[in-house]
Design goal:
Length: 505
């Protein structure tokens, strides 16, 4: 008989409660990752994230082989795969990590039902978040915290999250691969070609996928104790040529790094030292993640505007031309275009850069629906995470969580604060690299003689601005004011996301 551990997220051996629950069984352990060809062909996943996943699965297989088993990558729909494996492998039990996303919940319910039909035990464990999100809501008297401060107060009452489990370093003899275990390349991690990725389309890899890289990156930053203790997210640079943050988010997204491991490593560094506090500290970043996971886990239609009880209904106007200009870095605003170029090339941009481009697309300049920007991020970001992506886009469009819509990022002056010479722009928009510093953020203002000397004519070699920021900002502030006023007399959502009832007079 066998026990299956089903890897989805949580692609690691350290602090993996569901994997540990599979090992306690006295049967052969067969770790499985299901690769659905339909999902590969139809999902909104860019080439950088496919590469990250391929690297992660290869690394996971190597680490599993070191403890006496391997990763079985099975191609097919999960329902079809498990219906077959439960019979062919004489499965006694299947374990997996809890996933709170709507698609994952419906998928897991179907597999759990299938397992019961086959007499297979099911064990689900929390491992992708610091806490069980249901326990957070329960501790808040059944109400979903809709502010960061509310979440922070709840977790302070709950106390620190559980300490991480030790990494799996060996298997009991009964759990190791047996002589009759399936083998061969049919179970190997996917190649880039299988994932529809042409290697020639890829830029050099800056952030390799996998648990090995995740732990090495965590160690690297935790050794910088002074930097960790002084870290304030708003004071980092969105346009530094070397990332000014840890770039651990892709590893948390795929579960190559346990959030509990990071939490307790941070706690060790902080102990006995003066350090920054949430929400701006590194610990605070983990709590932001927890906040959006908690709200997203119970809010209907969290990734869209309509039917979403926490989201303000704003009359955005779709314009395909404006949307494409933003998506492909052709807005005529170098700071915005450089950020979108970096995102497409590397799969990552700094969180303040995300703030700038999201504000520009929505309430700041282009008045496009936040859902459309969210979908672009969903495709291009290495760390695209359903709850965080939707939550942050609602925040940055001032649709939910944040309502100071009059605070607009300038696509010109904001980047100058941390990169007055425009070195970042010159890197990602090389056609502008010869522009003088005083025109690099506003090249359309350069005299024609300067443009010719720089070898880049505006309107010919680089686009003119698609909107006038000063005019667009004023227009959109008026639009936001009217949208807010239209809902002023409506019932505000309660902390559980449902409309409040009017009090009887």
């Amino acid at each position: 008989m066998t026990t299956i551990h089903w890897f989805r997220k949580g692609l690691r051996l350290h602090d993996n409660p569901a994997l540990q629950a599979a090992v306690v069984e006295n049967y052969e352990l067969r770790p499985v990752f299901v690769l659905d060809p339909w999902f590969v062909a139809n999902s909104r996943v860019g080439i950088n994230r496919w590469r990250f996943l391929a690297q992660t699965l290869t690394d996971l297989n190597t680490r599993l082989q070191a403890v006496g088993t391997r990763l079985y990558v099975i191609r097919g729909k999960p329902e079809d795969v498990f219906a077959r494996l439960f019979k062919e492998w004489d499965v006694h039990k299947v374990t997996w990590e809890v996933d709170t996303e709507p698609y994952a919940r419906s998928r897991d319910e179907a597999i759990e039902k299938l397992a019961k039909e086959h007499g297979v035990k099911v064990c689900c464990k929390v491992g992708h978040t610091l806490y069980n999100t249901e326990k957070i809501i329960e501790a808040n008297l059944g109400k979903t915290p809709l502010t960061y401060q509310g979440l922070q107060g709840i977790v302070e009452r709950l106390g620190p999250p559980p300490k991480p489990l030790l990494a799996l370093t060996s298997l009991p003899p009964s759990c190791t691969s047996q002589s009759n275990s399936p083998s061969g390349p049919a179970y190997d991690p996917p190649t880039l070609a299988e994932l529809g990725v042409k290697e020639s389309d890829l830029e050099p890899c800056l952030y390799p996928g996998g648990e090995t890289e995740a732990l090495a990156r965590l160690d690297k930053y935790m050794e910088r104790k002074s930097w960790v203790c002084k870290f304030e997210k708003p004071k980092t640079s969105p346009n530094s040529l070397v990332p000014s943050t840890t770039v651990l988010s892709p590893y948390l997204k795929f579960g190559c790094l346990s959030p509990r491991t990071m939490y307790h490593r941070l706690a060790e560094v902080y102990r006995g030292s003066n350090h920054t506090k949430p929400p701006v500290s590194l610990m605070g970043q983990l709590l932001w993640r927890e906040f959006f996971y908690t709200v997203g886990s119970v809010t209907p239609n969290f990734d869209r505007m309509e039917g979403n009880p926490v989201c303000r209904q704003i009359p955005w106007v779709r314009d395909e031309k404006l949307m494409k200009a933003w998506e492909f870095g052709k807005t005529g605003y170098p700071f915005i275009d450089a950020l979108m170029t970096q995102l497409r090339k590397e799969g990552w941009i700094h969180h303040l850069g995300r703030h700038a481009v999201a504000c520009f697309l929505t309430r700041g300049d282009l008045w496009q629906p936040w859902e459309d920007g969210m979908k672009v991020f969903e495709e291009l970001l290495l760390d695209a995470d359903w709850s965080l992506n939707a939550g942050n886009w609602m925040w940055l469009s001032a649709s939910a969580f944040f309502h100071q819509y009059f605070r607009v990022y300038s696509p010109i002056s904001f980047g100058k604060q941390t990169d007055k010479h425009g070195d970042y722009i010159r890197k990602y928009l090389p056609q502008l690299k010869k522009y003088p510093d005083n025109y690099i953020y506003e090249p359309w203002k350069a005299p024609l003689s300067v443009q010719k000397a720089a070898g880049c004519i505006i309107g010919q070699d680089y686009p003119r601005p698609i909107v006038d920021h000063d005019i667009a900002r004023k227009t959109n502030l008026d639009r936001m004011s009217k949208a807010y006023a239209a809902e002023k007399n409506k019932n505000p959502p309660t902390s559980n996301g449902s409309p409040a009832k009017k009090k009887k007079k």
